[in-house]
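Slide 14.
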Amino acid sequence: MDDASILKRRGYILGINLGEGSYAKVKSAYSERLKFNVAVKIIDRKKVPTDFLEKFLPREIEILATLNHRSIIRTYEIFETSDGRIYIIMELGVQGDLLGFIKTRGALHEDDARKKFHQLSSAIKYCHDLDIVHRDLKCENILLDKDFNIKLSDFGFSKRCPRDDSGRLMLSKTFCGSAAYAAPEVLQGIPYQPKVCDIWSLGVILYIMVCGSMPYDDSNIKKMLRIQKEHRINFPRSKNLTGECKDLIYHLLQPDINRRLHIDEILSHCWVQPKAQGLSSGVINEEGESSRGAEPSWTPDTPDTPATKLELQEEARSETRPEMQSKSKPDEETMQMRVSRQSDPTGLNGELQSRETEEGVPSRPPETHT
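Slide 15: predicted structure.
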C-alpha cells in the first residue's frame, strides 16, 4: 500500500510534503484521534545505508520514545510496516524553524531571544541530565509552535553518553552536524566531550538569535579555528547588545573546554534569568571571567572596520541528517567533515556587508588544545 493508505488505516489523513531526502521524507497529516495536524517522518529501510540502519536509526527511535519535555518536539507514535517502512508521528512545528524566522524578521530583540534561549537551554539540560546529547544543534533543528515557543527537533545524531567503570563520561570521536556550529575541538579531530560541544553550539545559536548572522565565517575552516582559539568574537554595533548578553555568548564560545559554561551555569546566568537585571557592572577580565567593576567596553582601540562578510549558512539537510542523505555516515572512528560552501540561502548577507562591528577582547593568547 502507499503511504496515504497506510496512514489512513492508523487514523491519519496525509497532507502536504514538508521535506524529502534520498531515503526519507517528512509529510504533514491530520490525526483523527488527536484532532490536530502532525508531522510524519517516513523512512524506508531498503534505501538507507547499513551504518545508519544499525547505529543512528535505533538510537534515534530509542531516544525519541524516551523524551518528554515541553520544549522538545513530542513523538506520538512509531510503527513499522512489513515491507520495512518506518513511520514516526511527531508534533508539528507550525511556525517553521528558527532560521526561517530570523531570515524573515531579522535578529531578535533580547527579551524575545532570552525567552527562546531559556526554553532551548531547559531542553538541553533535560537531555544532558539523562546523559543524552543532541550533537546537531542548529537553527534549522529548532522549530516553533503556534505561539512561537521553542521545540527542539531532529535527534538523528543524538546518543546516550557511555560512562567508564569509574562513572566518568567517555569521549566521542565522531564528527556530527554542521561545521559552522561545531566546537573547535570537534573540527580539530580531538576526542571530545559531547555535552561540552552542545554548549558551544548553543553559543552559536544565541549569537545568531541576537545578531542575525553567524559568529564565524566557515568558508575557511583553518582560519575560523584560529579565530575561535584566540577567543575573538565580533558583535555588531548596530544591535546595541547589552553587556550581559555579550558576556554569556563570550563564555559559551569559550575555546578552553574546562572554562566553557555548563548547562546549569547557563540557566543561572544573569542574562537568562527573566527578572534579573544582570551584570550591569560585569566585566570580562584578562582571564576571560566575569567580575564586578566598570561596564565592559567591547570597542577595539583600532579604527572601526567593516564586518567580514559572513553567511548564515543553512546547510542542505542531506548533509546533516542521516536519514536524509545518500552517503554513509562516518563510523565512531572516522572524522568526515563537510565544509562545502553554498550560496547564501538566507538573504542576510546584504545587511552584513556594510555593518560595523566591535570585537570582544581575547581572554588569553591563542592556545592549541591537543
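Speaker note: Residues 98-359 form a domain with the Transferase(Phosphotransferase); domain 1 fold (CATH 1.10.510.10).
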